[in-house]
Amino acid sequence: MSTFISEFLLGGSGKRVAIKDSIDIAGYPTRSGSRAFADAPAATKNAEVVDAILEAGWQIVGKTNLHELAFGVTGINDFTGTPINPQAPDRVPGGSSSGSASAVAAGLADIALGTDTGGSVRVPAACCGIAGLKPTYGRVSRVGAHPLESSLDCVGPFARTMDDLIAAMQVICPGFAVAGMPGEGTNVGFLDVDCDAHLQASLGAAADRAGWRRSHLQLSEFEAAFAAGLTVINFENWAAFGHLTGKGLIGADVETRLLAASRTSREELAEANAVRERFTRQVDAALEDFAVLLLPTLPTLPPTLSEARAGSKAVAGMTPLVRPFNLSGHPALTVPVELDCGGLKVGLQIVGRKGQDELVCAFGAQLQQSMAGERPAPKKS
């Protein structure tokens, strides 16, 4: 089982950073976890986020593994190996940025960069019990990230602590300014979604301990946004990788998904983009009433490796709560919360207004501080 596709040291002596192998580093091939790119030449230029890391004096420690072509949610990869989930070795690490999450959770890196098209930072972060951010779409440069064209994908950081995640955003996101902590009793909207009851209860209790005043709400376009997001992913991934099918170059799971994606029509894409507009307006309207929206990152515990390989329905249920915010473009952060009944850490997702990544991170920092006992638990109103 491999967390890194290649290990090396590059740069200064600052924070240790791992880079997903769908992001270019000059002098190293970008293989995107696929046999199809086994003979890819070395990249000639760094991705812009890699230049930013090096200019900060931080140290790149290697390129991390991923679900092949970044087109999968489990992180299982039979070509390059499947990274271990450090908090639950019998469970999937999550995808597609599996190696990045695994490296941070195992302490092999302080920070890692991944990409998130339909949950591919937030899902593995939640699976592995760490923090992960999908920034506002377009706010962090994708120059040098693959696939080159995407209307959904974002480069985002992983870290064990919000301090490190915020430091990463200060480096890779021009103009990112640290925001102050939200005030006591700040109004937050807690989305009503399908989720395991014990998980929902633990996340609600964590929000209460942070001192926020939560109200429940529903977004009527939420499920439609989930479906529309897949339509867009399918259309764009077929355009990027369809030429690789039928040649024995990619794994069976990704080949099957790509062939299914080939049937996505321009009419379906137009309908998905209409949903995108409606859902975006709905989220924007909700965020006029609340500082942020909260919801679980995953609706259940991550499936076991054996369940995933057996084609369990649990795999299909890993992204319904994350993909809608790729479609809308809002910043979405997952922060680990320990279940009240003990056991694994699960993710609480914090969604904010576009361009207010700083505020989303401030909420994440407050949540993490409250769980560490750095402030007393407030009384429930």
TrEMBL record:
<dbReference type="InterPro" id="IPR023631">
    <property type="entry name" value="Amidase_dom"/>
</dbReference>
<comment type="similarity">
    <text>Belongs to the amidase family.</text>
</comment>
<feature type="domain" description="Amidase">
    <location>
        <begin position="17"/>
        <end position="173"/>
    </location>
</feature>
<feature type="domain" description="Amidase">
    <location>
        <begin position="249"/>
        <end position="361"/>
    </location>
</feature>
<dbReference type="Pfam" id="PF01425">
    <property type="entry name" value="Amidase"/>
</dbReference>
<protein>
    <submittedName>
        <fullName>Amidase</fullName>
    </submittedName>
</protein>
<dbReference type="GO" id="GO:0003824">
    <property type="term" value="F:catalytic activity"/>
</dbReference>
<dbReference type="InterPro" id="IPR000120">
    <property type="entry name" value="Amidase"/>
</dbReference>
<dbReference type="InterPro" id="IPR020556">
    <property type="entry name" value="Amidase_CS"/>
</dbReference>
<dbReference type="InterPro" id="IPR036928">
    <property type="entry name" value="AS_sf"/>
</dbReference>
